[in-house]
């Protein structure tokens, strides 16, 4: 009787695969993550492993990587049956790790059983086993897979955020109508936010932890190129964690309840400016705040708006000999408006709208570090207040961001 180990964090998916295999007379072992799967593989020595790819805890890629390092075990045929994580990058990493196949869910019972046969046949016909990947090679490939999956999650969550914002605006004009639609859209957004946090934080933390352990324990044994790869991996991993934190914050901003009150925006701008200055010690920036700027809005959210606008002004004026940042009142289409102006590097105004989309930047990370989510947050908050925002600038001559609050 063939013994098959099925590793998947989805109980439902494990049950489907188990039923299929048992109909063909297989003995099935189950594990909910790679750590459990590794223990079972060591103790039970299955004839085949069928595993999901990205999972909380130890996932399928890490599981196979660790499994191939165990010299005391015979080479166990390994088949990925995964939710398309990382696309072609996932399939390529699976191949480099020595997996016999990488199947995307769902497959019919016949297709899955046929893949089992091919995996066993391919394994038995191999004259040489695939050597374990070096740690820096594994981390490099693993980061590419997680990056590709993050890009898909970001796209899906951004689209859901935009859909919810449009629906919320529509329902404000149709009070009492479509509450079911709003609830459904909100629920979808919360599920996507959870998916980003649940599915991607764990593997990213693994990458960060493994790469740090590699740097601490094996740095002397790495080639200069290996050390460069490791440094890039650590920087990219931490940047992606920052991106996820920012993305989830953007999602929360679209759903939090507004607490409207009368506000002294001049006082709030001075407070935020002092906080930004404290975060940038050693820099002398002249801050000018217009008096008498008052409005009605949510104090917590409008502080976020001013923080992002003033922080950007501070950052992008860093190369200016006499940096100046100004908070002022103005008018826009006959409405009271507020603006933050600086004399920094500016940008080509033809690309101004691009700035308000998540993760869109007009300067490189090396020139000016950042995630690229701040202005998307500004736009989301201003829109929730019934206002609008625009950017005006000229390369080398500073920028002005103007907003209304409806």
Proportion of helical residues: 40-55%
Q: Which of globular, elongated, flat, extended, rod-shaped describes the shape?
A: elongated
Portion of residues in beta strands equals 15-25%
SS-derived structural category: alpha/beta
Low-confidence stretches: none
Q: H/E order of the elements?
A: EHEHEHEHEHHHHEHEEHEEHEE
Biggest sheet strand order reads 2-1-3-4-5
Write a concise synopsis of the structure shown:
The chain is 52% helix and 16% strand. The protein is α/β, with parallel strands linked by helices and 406 residues long.
Report on this model:
The protein has 406 residues and is α/β, with parallel strands linked by helices. The chain has helices spanning 11-23, 34-44, 60-68, 88-97, 109-125, 135-172, 179-218, 224-253, 265-279, 299-316, 374-384; strands at residues 3-7, 27-31, 48-51, 78-82, 101-104, 260-264, 286-289, 294-298, 324-332, 335-342, 389-393, 399-403. It contains eleven helices and twelve strands. A five-stranded parallel sheet has the order 2-1-3-4-5, sandwiched between helices. It starts with a strand and ends with a strand.
